[in-house]
Model the fold of this input.
Amino acid sequence: MSFSGGSKVTASQLNNQAMQLVQNIVLGSSQPSVSFNPIAASFNHLRLLWHVRTTSGNVVDNVTMQFAGDSGNNYDWQIMAGLNATVSTTPSLGASSILVGSGVGGAGSANFFSNGEVDVLGWSQSSATHVVTVTGKWYACWSNSAATSQVGTMGGLYTPSAQVTSLSLAPAAGSFAAGCVFSLYGLN
Done:
């Protein structure tokens, strides 16, 4: 959208540029995964906000994303995470999903949840000739101690074989617990 001197902006033009809520999911009971399907190809980009905890016996679990139910080795990603005073990086090429962050596990302190944000860039252009790019950040804290607090960033891509119309999230272990919230927004 562009304007020249003296032009007026209408409400509908502004609404077309704002983030639009696609779907908000609040879990009333545990679920092994959460899916957004279908997602309109008219959005240029997507933003996913998540607030999670798992039911596993771990204090922290990875949270992964897949597009269009594709579990093939079509995902490449890299993370950088800080835990207490230690920073580490982890790359993965040809993975079956993309790592988007860490969630507090069922062995973490009660009522602690992790928060994250993932941007899916170029959603409307996903096809066999255009990759989907993903960037994100998260914060996980599983007790009242600085030694149990993790912050991270991630980036990666997915090489689709066709137009992508859905995405799903799953924890590496257990299920997402009741009370988890997932909010997907579309951007034009």
The mean pLDDT is 90. DSSP finds one helix and twelve strands in the chain.
